[in-house]
Amino acid sequence: xxxxxxxxxxxxxxxxxxxxxxxxxxxxxxxxxxxxxxxxxxxxxxxxxxxxxxxxxxxxxxxxxxxxxxxxxxxxxxxxxxxxxxxxxxxxxxxxxxxxxxxxxxxxxxxxxxxxxxxxxxxxxxxxxxxxxxxxxxxxxxxxxxxxxxxxxxxxxxxxxxxxxxxxxxxxxxxxxxxxxxxxxxxxxxxxxxxxxxxxxxxxxxxxxxxxxxxxxxxxxxxxxxxxxxxxxxxxxxxxxxxxxxxxxxxxxxxxxxxxxxxxxxxxxxxxxxxxxxxxxxxxxxxxxxxxxxxxxxxxxxxxxxxxxxxxxxxxxxxxxxxxxxxxxxxxxxxxxxxxxxxxxxxxxxxxxxxxxxxxxxxxxxxxxxxxxxxxxxxxxxxxxxx
Length: 387
Description:
By secondary structure, the protein is α/β, with parallel strands linked by helices. Helices cover 37% and strands 18% of the residues. The relative contact order is 0.17. Mean pLDDT is 87; it is low at 1-40.
């Protein structure tokens, strides 16, 4: 498997691969939904404009649907911190890839911190203070809690501008000054899309259908709005939630829930976060559970869910385009720092996916390349020119 460094060397033409190995790599990456061109895309190539919704200023909440055009480069090598809840699953690793990729394109310094999980609010606040004390020009925050910074964002960051990514922030009025921008979708709609898919299959009067609901950590990340959206979508259907199980988004924690669920009272469907569904795919292949006919639906998209969709083991998943969100957050931050037509809020489209709807463009805007591993520090070359 190629490392990030090897991929860069390959794209620059500095290493020679045998013909056989080259063909093998093409087959491997094509099976995962990536073309050779997308993996070796030169960083100097300008990204194509993307359709999304945006809110130009904090004062005016009106949303406009239009194309977003990317910056070509930064005017100086800004020092940016990004705080992420964790890097335990492919979702946040894909956000990491988007952040790093755009930092390389623009030529800025990026340091990424991993809090370790959605229960690690104190750790994330400590990391935020470190960003401020180390002289960061801006902080990109994937918060571990929507209300975790309601009263102390200004104390932790002083005058450092903050940009929320993926996870929304709920703040007191006096804390709003430091929040200069947001990137992310409404997770209510992520849950609603999953529920709507099921409600169409099992409308009122079609017969009671039991599901288990495993959205992830209780009252962390987007689980609350996801749950509300899902419940709204199934309200007028024959879907009945018979079990609700909560745990942090680690594979071990979610595997324990799946084993408990299947050993006690197997439902007709398991619906939940990608980690739970990815675990369930594997558990359901074990001999003692292989006889069970359980449908699997994810509330968000990852590499494991992608493979599950391709193989028919996962029925449906929405994607909020995680790589795109990482890129947008970095681009939005530099726009603000340089006052180059800054935009307060950027909202990518949520795209519903099943086996028949897996376009390469959507996959590339959602998932990091298969060989990518998290990067925590990205610095521009010392010789990089900034206008």
